[in-house]
Amino acid sequence: MGRTRTPVVAGWFTGEGDDFRLLGTRCAACASVFFPREDGFCRNPGCAGGELLEVPLSRRGRIWSYTDARYRPPEPYVSDPELPWQPCTLIAVELAAERMVVLGQGVEGLTVADLEVGMEVEVVQGALGEEGDEESGTVRTTWKWRPTGVRA
Ligand SMILES: [Zn+2]
After folding, report:
1. Residue 91: strand pairing partners
2. pTM for the structure as a whole
3. Interval between CA 27 and ligand 1 midpoint (Å)
4. Distance CA 66, CA 115 (A)
5. Region 96-124: what's the mean pLDDT?
6. Cα 123 to the center of its chain, rounded Å
7. Lower CB count within 10 Å: N or C terminus of the chain?
8. Residue 36 Cα to ligand 1 middle (Å)
9. 33-46, pLDDT tens digit by residue?
10. Are 98 and 24 in contact, with CB atoms under 8 Å apart?
């Protein structure tokens, strides 16, 4: 039993453990990939539009930029305003196959001193916070980035 795991946003990621993946959408016409997912229309201005299909994103990417997040970042960063902001590292990761940058928190215990641009990281399931007690409470799940050289 234990706490119920609830995604902080529905439909942005899936799976557990090694199967954990971020979900984006890909335009069937021009193959552009979107994350956060775009389900309405293709945002590529040169594309007449096509069907948007859900695709799992690459698990691994390279650090494009990072910062020490002492305060809650503005949108489109996703966080739960109900929960107090925990200072953490915030990492922008370039996914080569998708040609995009995805922002996320670093795993707990990571500091900016552990990071450098170009370092390989992988996506892992993480928690933003816990509510309620051990039996009936909720864990708000999200994604976090972990350097591939570190096993938590
Ligand atoms: Zn398109």
Report:
1. 66, 104
2. 0.84
3. 5
4. 8
5. 95
6. 7
7. N
8. 15
9. 999 999 999 999 99
10. yes
